[in-house]
Structures are given as structure tokens and as C-alpha cells.
Task: inverse folding
């Protein structure tokens, strides 16, 4: 994206946190170093921890070295970037902080030409969102001051339908919907965007993209990591809340939606919502047919012995939290009727991989009588991470005098074809928010719908009488029961 000259100031609330350190400032730096960050810009960090502007800059420099895609090329360039960083200490619960932020913004805006464009980033624990939104409203910071004012709200956006609705209401009382950017960083990933290009900039896939040709879809988001230092947070979340409600359902919608009229926020959000409406509601009496949960025990991941979830710091020894969740969803519309969509996500799985696999029907009749065994149905696999790319499997004759069949892959790898490392998701999403493009963000109604869809599963799993999550060994592909869950339709989980 070419650089535009659009002045803006970004205020990060929660700037002493992990997200700012590992994602936000490294992404802003990489954009700046790649000459795509609009200028002139200012970045104001804020948190309760005391720090001077110089200290904040020093910390951010270390962070950029460690985490940014683009390493600082020279002191000069870094110094120019760092001169735009400042820090305003204060408690986001204290209204006085917002007066200080307003004063800092006015001083910056007064020192350069152009309108007062402001991007506010809520990067604190979600328990503070309500207070922050209230304070932004009361202080007047939410109101545009001659330019635009936007707010980015981090995940998790609520923990169920009611809390997401309440949060939407609070936001709606202070901001207009077009000012609100609910981030789902999965949507900023290059390969996720490529899914849309694959579908809507090629003609060969669209005729196949329906129930007549697709037998089954599998969406996998597997992590090799456990809960690390976030045991306490994870106890309250679990895989269904942390990953399924947002990332995996977003992927399903992008995969299943009808072509939007244009690649703009309104049409894309409308089409994604239609998919949400078409997903068959989950019958509370048949939860086990639609959903399965698991929890990792001790095991080996990438050759290293690791403890089980219940032995992790901050986790109850009798915890029932799901570290693995699988769903079988049906999209009841003309395009997808009868095609099962299998979604699974888990921690401490065999390896870190996110992919979408579309399995096509078998050939209606096999004329190669002698060796039908070697032929698998065609499969299109979109690899989201790592090793971004896609592969299509086709049947081929194996060399030799006999007519033997095998399956070969037509493989495209981003790294090999385009060379450069793809930008981080946060780079794209931050840039879009500055440009006022919310296409890759989540709209209020989508978020509420996603929570409402999963409500029966969350309720069932929260019951004291609910069965324990199935155990799986860390480093495996999930509980053995998940195999029976999928084999009811005659299928099997892929081992990516
Ligand atoms: N970390 C990630 O990679 C990641 C990824 C996706 C989404 N997120 C989301 O992004 C948000 C921030 O995550 P994080 O990992 O950066 O969290 P974090 O490391 O816990 O930091 C959050 C920030 O909030 C401030 N804070 C914490 N408790 C506070 C309190 N009681 N009152 C006022 N301020 C408080 C902290 O600074 P002070 O203590 O100095 O005030 C810190 O700057 C969360 O909603 C998280 O779910 C994070």
C-alpha cells in the first residue's frame, strides 16, 4: 500500500503490556521502516507504570529488535521513528488521565498542520474496557475534533452473548459504529486475505465451491504451546471462547460466504453475517453430536517433556477448562446444505499449524480398475501458518509400465514465490484503521451472532453435571474421542 500523507495520533492504553511490546509497536515500526505508515504521526503510550518518554522509547527499541519483522536499519531512521513516541503515565480508571491525554494530543496537533485524527487503542485487560469507554465518553476524547476519532478494541470481545451485547451497547453509547474497530488479528493474516483473492479473483474455483463438489471442510488452528504464563486467564476462557468464537468462525464465514458486491466493509460484513444466519443453531439436547472438548495431559511436544494443563501455574488441579474444542457445523443454504464443516483448535498439539482443507467428492466412477486404492479425493489446502501457501492434490499416474495411480500435490509457497516475509497481521490491521477501512474487522452483529451460536455449548460445558473434557496427551492431535466424533460421517481428521 503506498504511503498517504494523513496526520494521525495513536493512543495506546495498556502500553506497558505484552501486546504493545510484542505486536503493536513492532508492527508500527515495520510499517514506518517500509514507508507505509502515514505521516506525520504520533504514538502516545499510556499505562499505570511510571516511565519517562525516553525510558518508553528505550524499551520499545529493545522490543522492536526482538519482535519486529523489519530490524532497525540505522540509528537515524530509528531516531526519527522514536521522536514520535511519547508516554503519559496514569490509571485508565482515573478520569484525570484523560485530561492529560487530551492536553498531550492538543500539543502535538497544534505543532503540525492538518486535522486532529485520533486512533485510540484499548490494549488493557478486558475487565477495564467498560471503565475506559465510560471515561473516553465523559472526557470528550471519543468525539471527533475536526478530524476522525476511532477506537480499536482488542479480543476477547465479551465472554458470552450477554456480555458482548452489553459491551456493544456501552461502545454504541459513546462511539458511532463506524468509529469502532473490533480486532480479530486472524483477519489481518496474508493467507486469510488470500483466501478471498483465491475465491473471487479466479474463475476456476467458484463453480466447484458448493455442495455439488465439496464433500467436507476442515478448519484447524493448532498450537504447540501450552498456556505458558496465562493459566489464570485461560481458566476463565478455554479454547471455545479464546479461539473458536472468533478466529475459526471468521475463517468459516470467509470460506462459505457469497461473493460480496465489492471488497468493502459493508458488503463483506453483510455476506459474513448471512453465513452466520445460515449456520444451523445448536440443539442444547444434542451438544455431543456437534461439539467435543478435550484437555491436555503431560506429554512430549517437539521432543520436550511438558506438564499437563492441570499442572500449569494458575490452573485448578481439577480444572474442566477446554484446551481443545471441535465443532461440526452445517450451513443450511443452497450452496452448502449437507456439507459438514469441522472446526478444531487446541493447545499442546503435535505442531503449530493453521489451515483450511476443502475435500472434494470422489470421482463418481473409477475406470482404472486395477488400482483404485491409490486415489484420494482432490483436496485444496490453504495453509495460514506457518509455511503460508496452498496445495491442491490431484491423482496422477506413477511412472512405470503398469498403470498405477498416486496422489500428487500442486504446491504454492508464499516464501518461495514472493521471497519477502509477509507483513504481520497487526501491520495490515493498524494501517486499515488509520485509513478508515473496517473490512477486516468484526462488526457488532457478527460478534453477537457468533456468541449466540456457541451459547448452548458454553452453557452445557459449564454445568457441574457435564462430563469431564476428554484427555489427550500433549504433543498429540487431540483426544481419541475426536476421531469417533468425525468418523460418524465417514471422515477422519487430517494430520497436517
Ligand atoms: N498479548 C498478546 O499477544 C495478545 C494477543 C491478542 C489479544 N490480546 C489482548 O490485548 C489486551 C492486552 O493484552 P496484554 O497481553 O498486553 O495484557 P497485559 O500484558 O496484562 O497488559 C495489559 C496492560 O494493561 C495494564 N493493566 C493491567 N491491569 C490493570 C488494571 N487493573 N488497571 C489498569 N491498568 C491495568 C497494564 O499496565 P500497568 O499495570 O502498567 O497499568 C498493561 O499495560 C487483552 O485484552 C488481551 O486479551 C493480547
Result:
Amino acid at each position: 500500500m503506498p504511503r498517504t500523507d494523513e496526520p494521525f495520533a495513536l493512543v495506546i492504553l495498556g502500553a506497558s503490556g505484552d501486546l504493545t511490546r510484542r505486536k503493536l509497536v513492532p508492527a508500527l515500526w515495520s510499517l514506518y521502516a517500509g514507508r507505509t505508515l502515514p505521516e506525520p504521526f504520533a504514538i502516545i503510550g499510556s499505562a499505570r507504570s511510571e516511565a519517562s518518554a525516553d525510558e518508553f522509547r528505550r524499551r520499545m527499541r529493545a522490543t522492536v529488535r526482538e519482535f519486529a519483522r523489519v530490524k532497525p536499519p540505522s540509528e537515524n531512521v530509528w531516531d526519527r521513528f522514536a521522536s514520535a513516541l511519547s508516554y503519559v503515565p496514569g490509571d485508565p480508571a482515573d478520569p484525570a488521565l484523560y485530561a492529560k491525554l487530551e492536553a498531550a494530543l492538543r500539543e502535538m496537533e497544534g505543532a503540525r498542520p492538518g486535522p486532529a485524527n485520533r486512533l485510540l487503542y484499548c490494549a488493557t485487560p478486558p475487565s477495564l474496557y467498560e471503565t475506559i469507554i465510560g471515561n473516553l465518553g465523559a472526557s470528550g476524547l471519543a468525539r471527533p475534533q475536526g478530524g476522525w476519532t476511532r477506537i480499536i478494541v482488542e479480543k476477547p470481545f465479551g465472554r458470552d452473548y450477554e456480555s458482548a451485547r452489553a459491551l456493544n451497547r456501552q461502545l454504541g453509547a459513546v462511539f458511532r459504529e463506524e468509529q469502532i474497530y473490533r480486532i480479530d488479528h486472524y483477519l489481518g493474516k496474508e493467507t486469510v486475505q488470500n483466501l478471498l483473492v483465491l475465491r473471487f479473483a479466479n474463475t476456476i474455483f467458484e463453480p466447484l465451491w458448493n455442495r455439488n463438489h465439496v464433500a467436507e471442510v476442515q478448519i484447524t488452528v493448532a498450537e504447540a504451546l501450552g498456556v505458558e504464563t496465562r493459566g489464570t486467564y485461560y481458566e476463565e476462557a478455554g479454547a471455545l471462547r479464546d479461539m473458536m468464537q472468533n478466529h475459526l468462525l471468521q475463517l468459516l464465514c470467509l470460506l462459505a460466504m457469497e461473493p460480496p458486491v465489492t471488497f468493502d466493509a459493508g458488503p463483506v460484513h453483510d455476506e459474513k453475517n448471512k453465513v452466520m444466519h445460515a449456520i444451523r443453531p445448536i440443539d442444547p439436547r444434542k451438544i455431543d453430536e456437534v461439539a467435543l472438548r478435550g484437555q491436555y495431559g503431560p506429554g512430549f511436544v517437539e521432543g520436550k517433556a511438558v506438564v499437563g494443563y492441570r499442572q500449569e501455574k494458575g490452573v485448578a488441579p481439577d480444572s474442566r477448562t477446554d484446551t481443545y474444542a471441535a465443532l461440526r457445523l452445517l450451513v443450511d443454504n443452497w450452496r452448502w446444505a449437507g456439507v459438514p464443516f469441522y472446526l478444531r483448535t487446541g493447545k499442546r498439539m503435535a505442531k503449530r499449524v493453521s489451515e483450511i482443507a476443502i475435500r472434494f467428492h470422489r470421482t463418481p466412477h473409477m475406470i482404472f480398475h486395477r488400482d483404485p486404492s491409490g486415489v484420494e479425493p482432490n483436496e485444496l489446502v490453504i495453509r495460514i501458518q506457518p509455511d503460508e501457501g496452498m496445495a491442491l492434490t490431484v491423482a496422477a499416474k506413477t511412472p512405470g509400465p503398469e498403470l498405477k495411480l498416486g496422489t500428487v500435490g500442486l504446491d504454492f509457497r508464499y516464501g518461495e514465490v514472493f521471497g519477502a516475509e509477509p507483513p504481520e497481521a497487526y501491520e495490515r490491521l493498524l494501517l486499515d484503521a488509520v485509513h478508515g477501512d473496517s473490512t477486516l474487522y468484526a462488526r457488532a452483529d457478527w460478534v453477537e451472532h457468533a456468541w449466540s451460536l456457541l451459547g448452548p455449548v458454553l452453557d452445557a460445558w459449564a454445568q457441574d453435571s457435564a462430563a469431564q473434557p476428554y484427555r489427550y496427551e500433549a504433543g498429540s492431535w487431540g483426544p481419541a474421542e475426536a476421531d469417533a466424533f468425525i468418523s460418524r460421517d465417514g471422515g477422519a481428521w487430517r494430520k497436517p
